[in-house]
Backbone:
């Protein structure tokens, strides 16, 4: 199931950027978005589904990181 694959990817990288600032998370998310665009256009070897899973996992980890830092919705 795709949800389980995203959660596994999220867990595998939960601490990858834990010490990085917000702008770094944004840059890494944008990198994956650009790779997704490349995959959609046939210019990037990664399959679209893989890029979407990476984007989802990064977004989930970033949200948790923000909550851990007290940066969540006020």
Residues:
């Amino acid at each position: 199931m795709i949800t389980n694959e995203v959660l596994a990817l999220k867990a595998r990288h939960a601490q990858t950027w834990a010490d990085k600032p917000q702008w770094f998370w944004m840059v890494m998310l944008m990198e994956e978005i650009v790779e997704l665009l490349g995959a959609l256009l046939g210019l990037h070897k990664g399959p679209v589904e893989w890029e979407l899973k990476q984007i989802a996992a990064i977004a989930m980890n970033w949200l948790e990181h923000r909550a851990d830092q007290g940066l969540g919705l006020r």
User: Anything to note?
Assistant: The two ends are 34 Å apart (CA to CA). The helical segments are 2-12, 22-40, 48-68.
